[in-house]
Amino acid sequence: MAISIKTPEDIEGMRIAGRLGSEVLDYITPFVKPGVTTGELDRLCHEYMTNVQGTVPAPLNYAPPGYTPYPKAICTSVNDVICHGIPGDKVLKNGDVVNLDITIITKDGYHGDNSRMFYIGEPSILAKRLTEVTYDCMWLGIAQVRPGGHFGDIGHAIQVHAEKAGYSVVREFCGHGIGKVFHEEPQVLHYGKPGTGDELKPGMIFTIEPMINAGRRDIREMNDGWTIKTKDRSLSAQWEHMVLVTETGYEVLTLSAGSPPPPAFITDAKAA
């Protein structure tokens, strides 16, 4: 399958979808605190999407080949859960870390996909460092996006930074192309060699969403068929943005008023 190049109309639709996806995370932020259940966060996000935004939660009933339909509106991945944690009766407690992964579909059919990490109360030093390194990994990957670059450049930047910190990169899950289809070509690996993979071209839109483990990269799948945990029970962190390749570089589409600011090395480079 070829990687689709989005039309100007598609790009405008994806800008709207990206902002709306990010605004769900803005909305839910005050509710992410000790004592709340992951199921309550799901309920609040679902109601906000459908009642306030007029969007549809993309994960709900999503069923790739070989999977049972996903039963909730968002993914809530707590502590050693790498990805696809299903919201339920789990109560978040002081010291936990959680990734909320949100994808909305606009009335025009465009997907807005992003995720953020949240601290519950006061995080451990380990959890804070892992979360911050993973955030920097995502942005180092984003900074590689430019016409004529390659997907391997993105993966390499992420892998080098994670492993230098003593962490590991999950290999089984990756970023992906996105538009009116939730998951399309290409696969965006979070490890790799510079100059390898397909060439980046203006109009491509894809996610960069590194999953970084404090321990080893090995995974285990839970009996629900969706939840993925670290095999060694170490903490895992993930951040995700949706990125457009422009004529001169990149545009992050999943930004809103409450988005955490880019790291200093990004803003300094843009100012230079």
UniProtKB/TrEMBL annotation:
This protein's name: Methionine aminopeptidase
UniProt similarity note: Belongs to the peptidase M24A family. Methionine aminopeptidase type 1 subfamily.
Binding residues for a divalent metal cation 2: 113, 176, 209, 240
Residues involved in a divalent metal cation 1 binding: 101, 113, 240
UniProt xrefs under NCBIfam families: met_pdase_I
Subunit structure: Monomer.
GO BP, one annotated term: proteolysis
Binding site for substrate: 84, 183
Organism: Pseudoduganella buxea
Cofactor details (free text): Binds 2 divalent metal cations per subunit. Has a high-affinity and a low affinity metal-binding site. The true nature of the physiological cofactor is under debate. The enzyme is active with cobalt, zinc, manganese or divalent iron ions. Most likely, methionine aminopeptidases function as mononuclear Fe(2+)-metalloproteases under physiological conditions, and the catalytically relevant metal-binding site has been assigned to the histidine-containing high-affinity site.
Reported function: Removes the N-terminal methionine from nascent proteins. The N-terminal methionine is often cleaved when the second residue in the primary sequence is small and uncharged (Met-Ala-, Cys, Gly, Pro, Ser, Thr, or Val). Requires deformylation of the N(alpha)-formylated initiator methionine before it can be hydrolyzed.
E.C. no: 3.4.11.18
